Fold:
Amino acid sequence: MLYKNSEFKAMQSGLDMLWLKQKVISDNIANSETPGYKSKHVQFEEVMNETLEEQRGQAGPFRATITTDGSTSARPDGNNVDMEKESLELWQTYAQYAYLTEKITADFKNLRYVITQSLR
Structure:
């Protein structure tokens, strides 16, 4: 089945991670005026399983790490959110999410086509 293969699982994990990244960026933007708030960032790390999947070169599950940027800020209130950077990251993440959604949709359309043609 399509939804059980490793490529689909990787795309599904990617969507989950991109959603998390959008949420963290949105939190940063929402707190851009909160005194003392430190921006957070999401980092993705591909985790390889120590199983046969690794030997076949298939990707394992993805893991996200949320880190707080502890760097000092030029702002006197201690907030270090850079709105331009956050807005750009949000747009890039949205574009990646939209691409993965389109890819999954196309895969399901192809599967639907094959099923309908085989029933004729």
